[in-house]
């Protein structure tokens, strides 16, 4: 085993009365890919800053190998006096580092390098900071929420970069799919202490549940032991006084441990306040378009959204997701076409920019709209502090200004407010930003069980797969041109359907090329130098002739079967009504397309052999 290049042991740090970290540990060896997980407020970012040397703990051991280089991704980068993004990113390079890496990274992150750092949006600032920390390929790379504000193509590119990097990684992220693909070890920060699993995030949740079940069992055993000791004190035979006193002291210790045990951090418990049921048809858009100058954002697009649908909007940043969302909800008029909204709509919106928050407001005032100490939730008057506790806020935080909350806590607060309002149409624009995994689980359950209609914009592939019944995406994700297509199912289902279309295009091109090659060979066959026809060098077997004649018929038959299945899968309701049938159809499509590809290869070989023999 290689010696550690970073080691934190028995780390203690207290903010206020309760220790945030109380004996936490973290060890990093060369090549490690560690994801650091835990609830919002559990101290993940704080522990990462201690590891990076940005915060000093109150006690504990911190060891960094003297020759190792460390880079830490800042949540709010300080651009100082840098005049361009290129200069800012190059300042992260060390002696001997390749400056071309900066240009390469900036181009893949959608930046030219000539931008003024002070004019960058939040997402652009995050990309610039990523380029700065990735460029030197340090010994230890620490990334706190690296995927926030990145679109799906960039997230997938970043996964590839991190999978091939030589740096040891410590990652904090809410993106399950990202963690599953990148991590090989998991450190769970819980109630101030840490536990390590030497497997990637894909195995974490099952392991966590086993740990909590074992902990609950131990607490149950401790409770039974206390009952036995108390029974002995009351009814046991009197023994020597010293022995009795020792046993009484041990019982008091048991009671103290039992009372002092803190269970796992609470889970959010909430549901959406139901409004009056909307009409069956929620949104009908007919050939809507939108352009800004010469650029088309939405080409003619039509859709019908029915009550109970959950629709996901995906695509690269700048493709027009938010524009299309605003058109569908009536916030923005289309250039052409029309949008008709259904009846009895009560719309609630979670905005990705969190613009609804007045940072000087208090939590209680924000939740009640300044109307005292209570709010109405599902027709029931609730005290604001009791409602706050359901979203893991403490009663003493009621008078806390919102500006003191972390990004995840602000997202949770907005979620609490939205869920308290009666609604039958939820609009969620990047709802997963800054949420911890447990709150994401809650949001997933809310969305999946919501009786109304949901339209959400997200770059979280796992969240999309778990919630949506159909996905709207650009027809050409690499170069969006305003054309949008609705696919049945979630993100993974969309990718399967896209792959099928791409494979179909490749097969058509291959078949066309084969036909052109055959025609050229036929037109080129004729007489030799003496005018005599070329003689055959041999002949096809009966089996080969049969295959050459029948393979086109078999391919046509398979194409017909594909068309039938695609027609059935085109029903947006199928995935919601019968996900098993949808999965079976997708598997059948894969087999049919693979068989066509095999038959085409076989036919092409036989055709070329026939031409050679008859040549």
Topology, please?
Elements: E1 6-14, E2 19-28, E3 33-37, H1 44-52, E4 59-64, E5 70-72, H2 85-90, H3 100-108, H4 122-134, E6 140-144, H5 152-164, E7 168-172, H6 176-182, E8 185-190, E9 193-197, H7 204-235, H8 241-260, E10 281-292, E11 295-306, E12 310-313, H9 321-328, E13 336-341, E14 347-350, H10 363-368, E15 374-377, E16 380-383, H11 384-389, H12 407-420, E17 425-429, H13 437-449, E18 453-457, H14 461-467, E19 470-474, E20 484-488, H15 491-524, H16 542-569, H17 574-577, H18 579-614
Parallel strand pairs: 3-7, 3-8, 5-6, 6-7, 12-18, 12-19, 14-17, 17-18
Antiparallel strand pairs: 1-2, 1-4, 8-9, 10-11, 10-13, 15-16, 19-20
Brief summary:
The protein has helices at residues 44-52, 85-90, 100-108, 122-134, 152-164, 176-182, 204-235, 241-260, 321-328, 363-368, 384-389, 407-420, 437-449, 461-467, 491-524, 542-569, 574-577, 579-614, and strands at residues 6-14, 19-28, 33-37, 59-64, 70-72, 140-144, 168-172, 185-190, 193-197, 281-292, 295-306, 310-313, 336-341, 347-350, 374-377, 380-383, 425-429, 453-457, 470-474, 484-488. With 615 residues, it is an alpha/beta fold.
List keywords for this structure.
single chain; 615 residues; Rossmann fold; 6-stranded mixed sheet; 18 helices; 20 strands; 43% helix; 20% strand
């Amino acid at each position: 085993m290689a010696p550690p290049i970073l080691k934190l042991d028995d780390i203690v740090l207290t903010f206020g009365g309760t220790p945030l970290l109380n004996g936490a540990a973290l060890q990093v060896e060369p090549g490690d890919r560690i994801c650091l997980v835990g609830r919002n407020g559990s101290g993940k970012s704080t522990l990462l800053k201690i590891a990076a040397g940005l915060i000093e703990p109150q006690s504990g051991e911190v060891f960094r190998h003297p020759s190792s280089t460390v880079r830490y991704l800042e949540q709010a980068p300080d651009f100082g006096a840098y005049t361009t993004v290129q200069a800012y990113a190059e300042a992260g390079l060390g002696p001997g580092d390749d400056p071309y890496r900066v240009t390469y990274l900036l181009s893949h992150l959608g930046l030219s390098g000539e931008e003024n750092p002070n004019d960058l949006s939040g997402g652009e600032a995050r990309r610039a900071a990523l380029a700065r920390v990735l460029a030197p390929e340090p010994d230890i790379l620490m990334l706190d929420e690296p995927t926030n504000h990145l679109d799906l193509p960039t997230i997938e590119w970043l996964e590839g970069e991190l999978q091939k990097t030589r740096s040891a990684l410590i990652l904090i992220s809410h993106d399950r799919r990202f963690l599953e693909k990148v991590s090989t070890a998991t450190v769970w920060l819980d109630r101030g202490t840490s536990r390590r699993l030497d497997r990637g995030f894909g195995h974490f949740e099952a392991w966590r549940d086993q740990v909590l079940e074992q902990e609950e069992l131990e607490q149950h055993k401790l409770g039974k032991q206390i009952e036995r000791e108390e029974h002995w004190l009351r009814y046991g035979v009197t023994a020597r006084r010293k022995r009795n006193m020792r046993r009484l002291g041990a019982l008091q210790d048991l009671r103290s441990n039992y009372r002092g045990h803190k269970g796992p951090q609470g889970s959010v418990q909430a549901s959406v306040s139901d409004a009056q049921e909307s009409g069956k048809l929620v949104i009908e858009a007919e050939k809507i378009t939108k352009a800004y100058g010469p650029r088309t954002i939405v080409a003619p697009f039509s859709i019908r959204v029915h009550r109970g649908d959950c629709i996901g909007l995906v695509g690269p940043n700048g493709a027009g997701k938010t524009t299309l969302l605003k058109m569908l909800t009536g916030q923005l008029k289309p250039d052409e076409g029309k949008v008709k909204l259904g009846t009895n709509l009560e719309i609630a919106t979670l905005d990705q920019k969190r613009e609804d928050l007045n940072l000087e407001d208090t939590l209680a005032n924000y939740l009640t709209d300044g109307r005292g100490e209570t709010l109405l939730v599902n027709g029931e008057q609730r005290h604001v502090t009791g409602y706050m506790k359901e979203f893991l806020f403490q009663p003493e935080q009621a008078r806390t200004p919102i500006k003191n909350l972390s990004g995840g806590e602000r997202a949770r607060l907005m979620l609490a407010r939205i869920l308290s309002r009666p609604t039958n149409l939820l609009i969620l624009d990047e709802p997963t930003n800054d949420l911890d995994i447990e709150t994401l689980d809650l949001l997933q359950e809310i969305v999946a069980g919501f009786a109304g209609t949901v339209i959400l914009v997200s770059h979280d592939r796992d969240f999309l797969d778990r919630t949506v019944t159909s996905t709207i995406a650009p027809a050409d994700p690499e170069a969006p041109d305003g054309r949008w297509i609705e696919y049945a199912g979630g993100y993974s289902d969309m990718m399967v359907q896209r792959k099928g279309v791409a494979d179909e295009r490749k097969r058509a091109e291959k078949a066309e090329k084969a036909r052109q090659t055959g025609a050229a060979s036929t037109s080129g066959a004729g007489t030799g130098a003496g005018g005599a026809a070329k003689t055959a060098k041999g002949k096809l077997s009966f089996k080969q002739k049969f295959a050459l004649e029948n393979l086109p018929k078999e391919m046509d038959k398979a194409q017909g079967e594909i068309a039938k299945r695609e027609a059935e899968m085109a029903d947006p309701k199928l995935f919601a009504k019968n996900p098993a049938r949808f999965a079976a159809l997708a598997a059948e499509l894969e087999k049919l397309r693979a068989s066509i590809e095999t038959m085409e290869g076989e036919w092409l070989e036989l055709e070329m052999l026939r031409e050679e023999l008859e040549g």
